[in-house]
Amino acid sequence: MNTSEKSLTQRNEKIQKNWTQKGxxxxxxxxxxxxxxxxxxxxxLLSFASPYFFTLTNFKDILLGTAVIGIIxxxxxxxxxxxxxxxxxxxxxxxxxxxxCVSLNAGLGLPVALFLTVAGAITxxxxxxxxxxxxxxxxxxITLGSMSLVRGIAYIIIGGQPxxxxxxxxxxxGSGSLLGIPIPIYALLLVLVVLSYVMKYTQFGxxxxxxxxxxxxxxxxxxxxxxxRILVYCIMGLLAGIAGILLAAQTYAGIPAAGMGxxxxxxxxxxxxxxxxxxxxxxxxxxxxxxxxxxxxxNGQNMLGVPYFYQLVSKGIIIIFAMxxxxxxx
Length: 330
Hints:
Blueprint: H1 3-29, H2 31-49, H3 56-81, H4 89-105, H5 110-134, H6 139-158, E1 163-164, H7 168-175, E2 177-178, E3 181-182, H8 183-201, H9 203-213, H10 215-220, H11 225-251, E4 253-254, H12 262-272, H13 284-303, H14 308-329
Antiparallel strand pairs: 1-4, 2-3
Helix pairs in contact: 2-13, 3-8, 3-11, 3-12, 3-13, 4-5, 4-6, 4-11, 5-6, 5-11, 7-11, 8-9, 9-11, 12-13, 12-14
Pfam families: BPD_transp_2
Subcellular location: Cell inner membrane
Protein name: ABC transporter permease
């Protein structure tokens, strides 16, 4: 081997070593990459554990479950970034399904029913945002109260029992497919794209991050903190309302008991996704991966026939693990 060939070989080895080193650094430093690897490992383990897991039908079920929780989790990500929290989202999901059901059964028509459903959900967000931003009530306290209040109203409206409704369009939204992909997945992706653009490229998104980092500094820099935080909670209400419509479309009924525990599932997904508990930091892509991990774990346990009370134990472990990871990262 002559000198030029030896030099070329050494240079190629150096380039290959640099790329390998960069790849290892990316894997070790990128939290999103770690979450992606965790998803792949879960899929591999569950595929070996159950012959029914790695099937197209099951993956569609996982994605359908991810759609409802994912949309809620995207809104929860914005709320946590703004240094808030919303425990009422599960109740808003039930409340929205009830409004949709009652409106359709009253013969108001689908456009009016959807308008009332969305307006009702946004009103809850406005209620939470007003108390948090204007009256400076702790968001944990006020949303804990509205969680009980809204669910109670849902029970009162529908008479305490689930009621079915009939709408071909709503049924298609819940169980229909386009190009082999369930409609709720399109809703999930649409919300993800819109919110990602808003948070990254608009002044409102930058304001949300600024408020989460330091509200007083944000106020002194000219940001309308009250208006921005109210809008964040209204968006959270809107997304919970959309999730309620999707859930009602899948069950063909208004169910006042629906959405129980959704707030914990959403918080777990958001925290697993890397959103900071103290505000000012978070990514919707991480939330999507966190939602997938939660959905995979729950689906895998169902595939394996794990009793419900053991699933509660595992969910508690996941929440504790997510909180511990979040505290360590922060």
